[in-house]
Specification:
By secondary structure, this protein is α/β, with parallel strands linked by helices. It folds into 2 domains: about 30 residues; about 250 residues, Rossmann fold. Helix content is about 40%, strand content about 15%. It contains 10 helices and 10 strands. The chain has an 8-stranded mixed beta sheet with strand order 2-3-6-4-7-8-9-10, with helices on both faces. It has a two-stranded parallel sheet with strand order 1-5. Helix 4 links the parallel strand 7 and strand 8. Helix 3 packs across helix 4. About 45% of the residues are buried. InterPro entries: AB_hydrolase_fold, Hydrolase_4.
């Protein structure tokens, strides 16, 4: 009996230590930034501009602006009566930095979009340390740059977010109501995703992050595209179903079923992914 009690106490102690480790290291699990760049758009054959963005709370963010290909309605060259291609605000996931998204930049360039991709605070060359409210301010700085410095109208902007970036994108879209919103590999909220990944841990009690994509999406009136893979090993497909139900205020809702895992779904889906984006953009804009 004494031996059994010792085993139980040791097990409880180990569980408590594991839970404590999760609580105190959760920031390192949510944010996995890299400072070194792995390349630049020029390595992918894309023209680009270095951009620096100032946030409301004093951080300085590094970004790239990739203009639309010639003939696709570049905003800076189009006349007042000409068709203007939309611009995409790219909000990436929780790991790496903007240099690890070159394949996506090529796809959006092929689709005729200009793109502003930024690094959150603490990522790449950006100042500061990542935090939830900070990522929302970072996205807003990118949005304001497009409207105030690039002279885009709100209805000419596509807000795109992947994984963690999808939560930031939904939050941003609920505030600014862009021309369209694309959420790829999105989760409903950080606590719900944590509960799926660690069902034996009281994640909802311990987690200091919300990233409530579902609540934000309920407030979005813009056309919405949800892209997800049934083979996503990190965010279960059930999150897509719950997000679909939350998008009741959107003027239009489209779903793009991808193939492959959480990080490579857009590449594994190939031309079907590109066509899905193209169809959504054509339906959402007069000049895709």
């Amino acid at each position: 009996m004494r031996t059994l009690m010792m085993v139980v106490l040791i097990g409880l102690g180990a569980y408590g230590a594991f839970v404590g480790m999760l609580y105190f290291t959760q920031g390192q699990m949510v944010y996995i930034p890299l400072s070194a760049h792995a390349g630049s758009p020029s390595d992918a054959g894309l023209p680009y501009e270095e951009v620096w963005l100032d946030t409301e709370d004093g951080e300085r963010l590094h970004a790239w602006f990739i203009p639309a290909r010639e003939g696709a309605g570049d905003r800076n060259e189009a006349g007042a009566d000409e068709c203007r291609a939309p611009v995409l605000l790219f909000l990436h996931g929780n790991a790496g930095n903007i240099s690890h998204r070159l394949e996506s930049l090529q796809i959006f360039h092929r689709l005729g979009l200009s793109v502003l991709i930024l690094d959150y605070r603490g990522y790449g060359k950006s100042s500061g340390s990542p935090a939830e409210e900070g990522t929302y301010l970072d996205a807003l700085a990118g949005w304001q740059h497009l409207l105030e410095e690039r002279d885009y109208a709100a209805d000419e902007v596509v807000v795109f977010g992947r994984s963690l970036g999808a939560a930031v994108a939904a939050h941003t879209a609920a505030r600014v109501q862009p021309g369209a919103l694309i959420l790829e590999s999105a989760f409903t909220s950080a606590p719900e995703l944590g509960a799926d990944l660690y069902p034996w841990v009281p994640v909802r009690t311990l987690l200091r992050f919300e990233y409530d994509t579902r609540r934000a999406l309920e407030q979005v009136e813009s056309p919405v595209l949800l892209a997800h893979s049934r083979d996503d090993e990190i965010v279960p497909h059930g999150h897509l179903e719950r997000l679909k139900q939350a998008a009741g205020s959107a003027r239009a809702l489209s779903v793009l079923e991808m193939r492959g895992g959480h990080n490579d779904g857009f590449m594994r889906t190939g031309e079907d992914y590109v066509r899905g984006l193209e169809d959504f953009l054509e339906a959402s804009f007069d000049c895709p």
